Amino acid sequence: xxxxxxxxxxxxxxxxxxTPLDERVLQGxxxxxxxxxxxxxxxxxxxxxxFHAVEEARRRVAALIGARAGEIVFTSGGTExxxxxxxxxxxxxxxxxxxxxxxxxxxxxxxxxxxxLQTEGFSATFLSVDGGGRIDPDDLRRAIxxxxxxxxxxxxNNEIGTIQPVPELARxxxxxxxxxxxxxxxxVGKVPLDVRDLGIDLLxxxxxxxxxxxxxxxxWVRGGVRLQPLLFGGGQERGxxxxxENVPAIVGLGLAAELASAEMNGEGPRLSGLRERxxxxxLERIPGxxxxxxxxxDALPNTLNISFRDADGGAxxxxxxxxxxxxxxxxxxxxxxxxxxxxxxxxxxxxxxARSSLRISLGRFSxxxxxxxxxxxxxxxxxxxxxxxxxxx
Length: 393
Ligand code: PLP
Hints:
By secondary structure, this protein is an alpha/beta fold. The chain has helices at residues 23-29, 46-65, 78-93, 108-119, 137-143, 166-175, 195-198, 247-285, 313-322, 342-346, 351-354, 368-385, and strands at 72-75, 99-103, 123-127, 148-152, 180-183, 202-206, 217-221, 289-292, 303-308, 357-361.
C-alpha cells in the first residue's frame, strides 16, 4: 500500500462524508480549550470572553443562512439538529394529529428518527422521487392530510447531490399550515441559501461538512416557532438545548461559517468545473459508465455519483484505497452496510447498478491534478475489477 498517498489532501474525494478542519478554524478554536476555558454562563469577568465568543459564533452562523442570531440553537451536529426538529415539533404538536411527511432519500438522521416516531404511534409518508432525485411539489400536496403535523424534506442529497425545490415545497406546506423542516447539512456552505427566501420553519446544519469541527452543528428555528427540547437541564440555548456549551466547537463552527460565506461564491463554479472534467473523463474513457442523479443547476457543485457496469463498488473502493484514494459508495454511516443504497434504489436503479456505483465528492483541496489522477486510477481499477464476481452475491 502506498503510505505516501494515504491521507493526502489531493487524493481525498469524500468531502460529503466529512471535510478536513480548516487551519484557520483550528487556530481560532485553540484559545477556547485553554486559556479561555470558562463556562459562558458564569458571572465573573473572565467568563465574558467565552460568552461573547459563543454569541459571535451565533451571529456568524446566522449570517451564512440569512437568519437572525437569536434563531440559532447550537447542537452536537446535524443529527441532533434533525432530531430536535423532528421530535421537538411532533411531541409538541401531537394534540393536532400524528402524521409526518418526509422523503425516501433522506439521510438516516431523519429517516431513523421518523421510524422511531412510527414505533411511538406516529404515522409517516415517505415521498418518492424522480430519476434525478427530485421531489414533486404536487406529490407533497397530495400527501398532506388534515392530521399532518410536520414536513421534513432535505435541501440537498448527500449521495447524488440533488438540490430540492425547497421554496416550492415550502409554499405547499404554508398553504396547508404545516411546519416545514429541512435537513440542509449538505447544502449549507456549498450553495447560497437564505432561510427567508426558502419560506421554511426549521433548518439543520453541521460544522464538519463545512471545514469546521466534528460534533458541532445548529438548528435554525424561525422566530415564533415552538419546540419541545430533547435535553432538559440548565436551560442553555433558550431552553432548547440544555448542557454547558461546547465553546471550542461552537467557535469553530462560527469561523467555518464565516469562511464559507466569504468563499462559497468562488468555490461553487470552481468545483463544478472540476466535477464536469471528471464526469466527462469517466464517461469518455471508461465504457459502461453512467452518471446517477441530477444534472446542471439541480445538483450540488461538488458531488458526482457514477455506476460502473459489471464492477463491484466495494472492490473498486478497496482497489482505489490501496492507491491512496479516499472515496465512498454512499453515505459514510452506511459504508459498512450490506444493503444497496436506499437513495440509488429510490431513483430507480436496480440492485446490480446500485452496487456498482461510487460517490465522488470534491472540496476545498481538490484540484485538476488530483481529479486527473483519480481518473487514471479509475480506468485501471475498473479494468482490474470488472467481471470479478461481486462480493455481495
Ligand atoms: N444530514 C445529512 C444530509 C448528512 O449528510 C449528514 C452527515 O453525513 C447528517 C445529516 C448528519 O450530520 P452529523 O454528522 O453532523 O451528525
